Amino acid sequence: xxxxxxxxxxxxxxxxxxxxxxxxxxxxxxxxxxxxxxxxxxxxxxxxxxxxxxxxxxxxxxxxxxxxxxxxxxxxxxxxxxxxxxxxxxxxxxxxxxxxxxxxxxxxxxxxxxxxxxxxxxxxxxxxxxxxxxxxxxxxxxxxxxxxxxxxxxxxxxxxxxxxxxxxxxxxxxxxxxxxxxxxxxxxxxxxxxxxxxxxxxxxxxxxxxxxxxxxxxxxxxxxxxxxxxxxxxxxxxxxxxxxxxxxxxxxxxxxxxxxxxxxxxxxxxxxxxxxxxxxxxxxxxxxxxxxxxxxxxxxxxxxxxxxxxxxxxxxxxxxxxxxxxxxxxxxxxxxxxxxxxxxxxxxxxxxxxxxxxxxxxxxxxxxxxxxxxxxxxxxxxxxxxxxxxxxxxxxxxxxxxxxxxxxxxxxxxxxxxxxxxxxxxxxxxxxxxxxxxxxxxxxxxxxxxxxxxxxxxxxxxxxxxxxxxxxxxxxxxxxxxxxxxxxxxxxxxxxxxxxxxxxxxxx
Length: 508
Prior knowledge:
Blueprint: E1 2-6, H1 10-21, E2 25-29, E3 46-47, H2 56-66, H3 73-92, E4 107-108, E5 118-119, H4 126-139, E6 144-146, E7 150-157, E8 160-168, E9 171-176, E10 179-182, H5 203-211, E11 215-216, E12 221-228, H6 239-242, E13 246-248, H7 268-282, E14 286-289, H8 295-301, H9 303-311, E15 321-330, E16 333-335, E17 347-349, E18 354-355, H10 368-381, H11 415-425, H12 432-448, H13 455-476
Parallel strand pairs: 1-2, 1-10, 2-6, 10-17, 16-18
Antiparallel strand pairs: 3-5, 4-5, 7-8, 8-9, 11-16, 12-15, 13-14, 14-15
């Protein structure tokens, strides 16, 4: 059969390779050049290799804990059961994971993992190594690659997806297929601060929404705590804090202990909110102090971070560096079953664009690359299987408050204005009034917008649609859980005790 794969990160490349190896005619469509997405930026690793005291069951338990009880157990079981096989496949395709002096895979431990079970490449360049190897593997096949093509619409005929429309060089082209696999990534560009590349404008989720596919959990946006607050967004791995670095306020005080007994090593969402509150109170970014690690250790353990921080004028071995949280990963997306099927026959979704149920309300470190590999392969294997009805998760069991805007005038639309609005009102700390205010402005902007014709206009339309859907979902869920924090909720998620951990690191 003819298969279209839209997206060239780990999920899309894995799906394309597996579909090709199963005998299908595959066309890979990518918004930029292959490898331009989030996969290549991932500093951390891939979870799924278990030592003598570890197991898939313990990995599953850690995933469920991180997801604040909202992960789908069946999806989590699939993830951990097939993880080792997918990592072995990555090695066979040429990914050079770091190894010990004896030649064994070097295993790292990250946030909320009870054991060291994560493989890395190049110290802090795992995503780049995976992306390069998979792109090279695709180039060695007969897979057709269409570059610099923006997905604008799904082609639906007789109730099934039968192709896509793309914008390329100013012209709209229709590509037909027997099945379409979306692997277009997330929507980090909804926010003023994000680790995501410029192309992460939620295109796949938006076109699926317009075509009638079910989406869920868009309110669960994970914010990474430490992004270098100087120049373009650049992630400072949580493994730096795992090695001993600390977060300081203007007085040099380690303020995160005010929010959680684990301090800098608390769960990612808690640390992000603590940083946001402190930065707001003092009117400037907080600082990450890694000086105690020394120049030699920093350069050896974190070569990419060491290079970039120095290029931007910081000697982080001698002085603390300014950091800020940023939107990092979207737990929600297009609803799928365990084989990537969506609620639209003929349409599959894999990777960050999909809501598989694995991540629940908060993603466990190093499960995202794993999810892309596992479910990319599963979707390709399901291409010729009979289409099954995909169950849609129930919405939050909460009474939706009445909409009341603050009465302010609607500002002029720009992407920057939208991103700042989402950061201020639909970001780390949310309230009913703020969410309602954001939703009213977004709807006003949408009502006054015209039919998109250019790439930028299509992206803006997609961002507006997802902003409305995200703010609406956040209004609907009136309690705090995981990455979704309602300041006006009865109980604060930050107050919940954590289970004791000897080490909590997180890098992806």
